[in-house]
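Chain X:
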Amino acid sequence: MVVDLGRYGIWRHASALTPELAVDVEKLGYGAIWIGGSPPGDLRLAEDLLEATDRIAVATGIINIWSVPAAEAAASYRRVGQEYPGRFLLGIGIGHPESSGEKYRRPYETTVAYLDELDANGVPVEGRVLAALGPRMLRLAAARTAGAHPYLTTPRHTREAREILGTGKLLAPEQKVVLSSDPDRARSIARPAVENPYLHLVNYRRNLLRLGFSEADLDAASDAVIDALVAHGEPATVAARINEHLGAGADHVCAQVLVEAGADPLPAYRELAKALGLG
């Protein structure tokens, strides 16, 4: 069964997601919640979020191939999918070598083998998406899954990803946002979330270099990099930036709201929902 994500969703680390937040986000009109941070393979958090809500979809962004065996992911998918049909999407990905150590070998072939196991264990193509940045993984996403869930990208990448995926495949990028009209304040919130660890990880660096940034830009976490990767400004400005992804070929964009340490993200999600015309 195809999962309807709507045009806009939220991306939030598993450790910061609660059923109470899910209820509030659903009321605001968002179509999906993406569970970030390589959640456990038992998918109990997904069940908790789905149980607390009525219609919103839940997706993993992402289950890490190295830490969750395909058989476990498939069993959890079947359980959640049967209980909440049409509302759960399994996002999987290979992660990055820095977190996987010596076992990170032949990532493409490992991903193919993982997809083969998901096939054998009853996870349908339309029930799964692949974290994909480069052309080869994007082509694999198009061939073997419902589509792609790129992370830490730009509308330019979205346009190029759509060309590779072709029509009829889901393209659901993540977009970091800070609601602040003060550029210096916005960058002070955004920079730590981008620089550490992402600008030091080889797969993200490779993708950003491919998009035209320099090694010096990445090493310095320059304003140009931060401004390209994190939409900031008034709610209308941020909403316009999110909509650039849709104009570039995305079907759905999940917003990761960044706030100061300890701050409640819900007010920002509320302001953004209004600017996006949700509700």
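Chain Y:
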Amino acid sequence: MSAYDELMAFQHQTEALAQVAGRLGWDQETMMPRGASEQRAEEMAAMEAVLHARRMDPKVADWLTAIDDAALDVVGQAQMRHIRKSFARTRKVPGDLAAEIAKVTSRAQGLWAQARADEDVAAFLPVLDEVVRLKRLEGQALADGGDVYDAMIDDYEPDMTAAELAAMFDAMRPRLVALRAAVLAAEAPRALEGHFPADKQMKLTRQLARAFGYDMSHGRVDKAVHPFSSGSGLDVRITTRTNELDPFNCFYSTIHEVGHGAYEQGIDRAYLLTPLGQGVSMGVHESQSRIYENQLGRSRAFTGWLFGQMRDVFGEFGIPDAEAFYGTVNRVHDGYIRTEADEVQYNLHIMLRFDLERALMAGDLSVDDLEAAWNDRFAADFGYAVDKPSNGVLQDVHWSVGLFGYFPTYSLGNVYAGCLHDTLRRAVPDLDAQLATGDTSAATCWLRENLQRHGGLRTPRATIEHASGIVPSPEPLLSYLEEKFSRIYGL
């Protein structure tokens, strides 16, 4: 075997073990007994120690030295790009620190869930303080004298910086705020009211998953406090949640997670259990979940079909026709929860988190002051006060599991989705006629062919440029939002 073949065989085993570790995380969120959290923390730490050791094994250094990347084909060069970067990153982070982060974040996740249920911020702050301290240490090691938050972002969106993201947000905020003000001053569509049993929601949500191309033979739909997707290749799982007063929460969480899951299921099988066999970045991943959820799932055409499905499942529910239902689905409304936010206000939720976590990592904001800072910023941005911690600082799981630098990729994914949607509409001019029958295949197949199947072959930005044919910019997203909501609200 050549050095490249030996390295890829070793990497195959490492990727398989990483999938096992991911399955432990999925189980913790869905099936694990509540009393098992302390043991699970030890198990997660043990898996991270094994993975960390493999990723910086001296044999990897020998193989990397022996391999001439220029002699490889395009796929081989892409594999090496990922492996070399992972090796360099892993060498910077001490193994005991990586294991301690895995242990503490596993424990913190359970404490967060309980604190959220109890509306008890004080019960969560000590472990969050520990998570922040450990993640700062990791960020400092990775930054190697550079910007700590940039090093954290790079874990989720390679080659992106906080300065670039801040400039993007500065360009987006005035138009989003102006659109929100105009919309909220107009007459709102009717809100959804009624009782929608959870079992019926789950039946329809599985139908929606299949309608968007999710392969149930290689996946499953379960419930979790915070919906997420997990896995890659032949085992890709998603979760959703139900609220018997708000079925949209369930349906659009499912469609969103199907976007993530379909990306992983759609990657070329030749890349299975290699660095190319998973989504290239969280921003690109989010582009798939958001275009599935919003540009497709909340379109006038698709909501017309969904209206009929909901009447079949729930009977009459107070919305007279498909056009009124389209307005109800896209109603801009006050609310605290990011995952339930309408398209107009969603990115404002991300900007809040982006600024707060940058301040936390820079040491400009203490964990003890985080709740007050959140509440003050929310009141300033949205015009009303947070009523309880589960609607405020405790609503997201991300900080409990150490995902600092992750939040801005949500907005970046929205921007990418805007670019992709622009191109998709030109490529499939009769898309609405198909969506009106519940057939998303033209759109999902276009996305699979032009983006999903390539996995990590290209860099994130090049992935979007290849699929959309344009340099990523907020303009397509902002134009789409202004046109859509101006029509709905008669602006």
